[in-house]
Amino acid sequence: MTDFTHIDTYVFDLDNTLYPAHCHLFGQIDRRMSEFIQARLSLDETSARKIQKHYYSAYGTTLSGLMKEHGVQPRDFLDYVHDIDVSVVPQDEGLRAAIAALPGKRYIFTNGSVRHAENVAGKIGILDLFHDIFDIEAADYLPKPHEDTYHAFNRRFGITPSRAAMFEDLPQNLVAAHALGKTTVLVQSDADWMEDEPEDKRPSRPGETYDHVHHVTADLTSFLTGLKTAA
């Protein structure tokens, strides 16, 4: 069993981490980001897609680039891109039981909005298991992987990094967590709809390893149920 007896705080990313990437929920968000850019900047689909991915790579999120380069109001963007069909996300009793068994505090740490996190986690059936949600607004719109945002998260909830574990699907979002002393867990996927993501921002695939990642898994529920935790 993997020894997590030193962990008293469990931090989870939301998208493609708490639900399986192959359900394609984030694919809906991805398409709506392109649609928003097409309409707001009067661009064709190809040009909008290019801008979307460039800003994602350069600024950490597409939203950050749109705010800095075009003065887009974050609420307009977030409300539009998160207006999605969550019926594709499966309710997951196994994951619920695994998270409920974790001792200590549990948080969602997302570059999305609280509304989106509540919507998705509610559909999975795990929302009530989390003590709080730290979203992009709480981060003052400075997204992961910026290290200042991790410090802000830790301050908000009084987290001791050496006693915290962070779960993410994007390896670059675990760099700062590792540097601050957290145990890092990478949730990998081979979902093919993510093939056009920028190479420096794409989700990790099974078999890939990183110096700043302590553990990897393609099955979050199995990983959590296999932990040796504090009594």
Automatic annotation (TrEMBL):
<dbReference type="Pfam" id="PF00702">
    <property type="entry name" value="Hydrolase"/>
</dbReference>
<dbReference type="InterPro" id="IPR006439">
    <property type="entry name" value="HAD-SF_hydro_IA"/>
</dbReference>
<dbReference type="InterPro" id="IPR023214">
    <property type="entry name" value="HAD_sf"/>
</dbReference>
<dbReference type="InterPro" id="IPR036412">
    <property type="entry name" value="HAD-like_sf"/>
</dbReference>
<feature type="region of interest" description="Disordered">
    <location>
        <begin position="190"/>
        <end position="211"/>
    </location>
</feature>
<dbReference type="InterPro" id="IPR010237">
    <property type="entry name" value="Pyr-5-nucltdase"/>
</dbReference>
<protein>
    <submittedName>
        <fullName>Pyrimidine 5'-nucleotidase</fullName>
    </submittedName>
</protein>
<feature type="compositionally biased region" description="Basic and acidic residues">
    <location>
        <begin position="199"/>
        <end position="211"/>
    </location>
</feature>
